[in-house]
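User: Sequence in, structure out. Go.
Assistant: Echoing your sequence, followed by the structure tokens.
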Amino acid sequence: MRLIFLFCFISSISFSQFENTFKKLDTTDTAVGHDKKYVSGLGSKNYTTKWIYPNTRGQVEKYERLEFAISMPRSIDEKVMHFLATDDSTEGINPFLSWQLKVTARFKHVASNKEFFIDGFFYQNFKRDTSHSDFRKWEWIPLETPDYFRVRFAPPIAGQWVCEINIHTQNQTFENYATFPFTVNRSNNKGYVKVGKNKRYLVEGDETFFPAGQNLISPRCEFCYANSNGALPSELGRPGAQSFEGWMEKPTAMKGFLMFQEDMMNLSKSGGNYFREILFPQNQDIEWEKLGNYYGRMNRAWELDEQLFLARELNLKIQLNLQIQYALQIDNSRTFWNWSIDANDKRHIRPDLPCANPYNVGISTTKNDDPNTFFSDPTAKKFYKEKLRYIFSRWGYSTNLAVIGMVSEMEGCCTDADLCVEWMDEMGRYLKEDLKINQILIPSFLGIFHDPKNYEHPILANPIYDMSAYNWYAASAKKFQGNIKHIDGLITTFGQPFFYGEIGNANLYPCDTMRIEWGRDCWMTAFSGNAGIGMNWDDSFDDDLRQYLGNIHEFVNGINFDGDTAAWLPTRVISDNRKAETMLLISPDKSAAIGILSNRYYNWYLFGDTLGTLWNRPDLCQNRIPFDPGFHPNKPIEEKGVWEREFKDSPHDYIDRVSNTKMNQAVIYHPFESFSHNKNKHYRIRLYEMQRAYYRVDFYNAFTLAPISTEYNWGPNLKVEYPVMDKEAGLIAYKVRKVSLGQFPQINEEDRIPINFSDAIYDEDYRYIKIINNRYKLIINKEEYRLSIEHLNPKEEDNYSLVISDENHSEVYATNYTKASKDIRLKKLSKGRYTIEIKVNGVIYTEVVEL
């Protein structure tokens, strides 16, 4: 009998599969084929392990995906097949629950004896059938998958490795079920994104990683069901993300997954490097219809495979939020009752029936009218950990999976403070300590959490979490006043970076038809102390807006914001009349700065459809001219706005005050006004406490990055003599540097020359270590403790440095030099492993040697 799958999903991965047998078992319960009695397309063959990826069998590159399949023992295989066909876990085995079946791969690096334990996961292969002219009828076709248990691992060390497979069920154990060796070759993959040493920015390898991205939110097809009973829906006029809740009432059609990949490609083409995605039950969540049984959603899991493979190809990093709050809420307007892929499941259609969340309908001790029971119930927590285990067994290997969010806007679904803190601690520790994930782990909150008594603060203070994050929606002309001070306070309080998971303009979204504030928010948050660009929630599909992301990425890429000894710090300055505003980052030694200037007349009200006819809501937009009330002389100091503070009172957020100040005057930003620094003294912007030096300031149109002008001036109180900010240049980006620096402290893209490891030579004997590649020749004489290096294809202006550190990361030698060759006499070093960092014009190459 052949089971008809409940799937609806995609195309197979383009990698070769190999029939390689690494180890055969000498037992009567060997892994052999069966007659496919229960489920078509699944079943074992007569080998124990099979190399799947990469196509260089037995060899994989450092930090890249290694994937192999495991053919299960016949006694287990038959019980798994029985479960998949019947849902009976008494006579069968549920392959998704570790207490019924646990497959573990133990990876050991031979030279260092370091070990890594990775769980296997159940896998079903698919392909997309897009042959029908009506995209609503496209289907996911399940493919023959005889090797349905997989293991994925990204080995972090080059050299020889051994893998051992162990299998455990409730009543059987197969220790050392399979063993095979493999080789890990060096690569240019820098590994997982981490928090920088100064706790303000992120790093990838030895460089700052500055996220330049947006919320792509989730695969979706808002028009796929528009004419479900009639003609083929039109693909034109895709609405913005704020129509999100209105159409997410049915499972995402295949068209939505393909469009999501198109958005990923367009984001990359625009110069972005990062996006945020949320697991929704209507698309990629692996668990919804059945508690602890993900079999009916394997096509969705396969779709997430496809996204991660594409992200690797495009060099995009992903922030993945694991739980959407709506699935745990009781508000009928956002519970999305019919998220099920099972059309006969009436629980998913009517709000008066029990919520379809499996943690509600599948567990008797949770309550439909109290989502807090999801966070308190022991059974619910036990099953949720299994879901987390599956997610990271399958996707945790990926270095493109950079940041993990636990629950989106947690305040919306967890209201018991003590319970929320306890749950976040337990799940965070499970991920970090039990599963040992490599990703940055963050919470997600809605709005600014001012009150230390709220439960957000103890969660952020928990060292299990790596970064503060919340979603911020504001529409005021004064929205960035106090912004830097607040972010800096969070970074200082919790000792971790801060990041905006979502930003937007709240109810002004339908008024800002030109998306002025979309672009301004990108630029301003980039220089606010945020660890990257704040990620807009709206307009996920707009390629024109994505150009802002590419421009900012190009503008800041290659700057070491994390710093060697200290990080770049943010400052906000506003002119005395509050018409010109700048956000900038200043280098630790005050020799350089980078930032954005904003003409506050360049705003949503003066551009586009201010009547709100787009959504037929003129009441949202009329009579809401952007306004700044100014200074309030009669208020006590604690009630005054931060915009009135002088530099000495608030050095990171100050007004450039002048005599005969206009701070007391209110400003209405209508009609439009063009101006430059020299209109009069009230438009002046100065940067205080720079070095006493001569500076160069280069100005660029933020919309195009076209150069506008260059000015020179003296510090320490540096006048920023900005050009005219008119309708075509309402936002102006700029870079400041000491003239004596020669160039801005930023890596040039032409200097980023990767090592060609396929032709590199590493040769070692008892006397010498010789390393030769396309960038340098490095020779270490182990007897004489001498190191010589010759840089290949040098340029006259090249600068070099070399740092040697021991196994404890302590620096044992460091030197800077300008000639293309260097001979170094080292002090006698003890035996051990040493890391050599070779820096060429800011680009770092790393060698690890044993002496």
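User: And one key feature?
Assistant: Residues 1-46, 236-247 have pLDDT under 50 and may be disordered.
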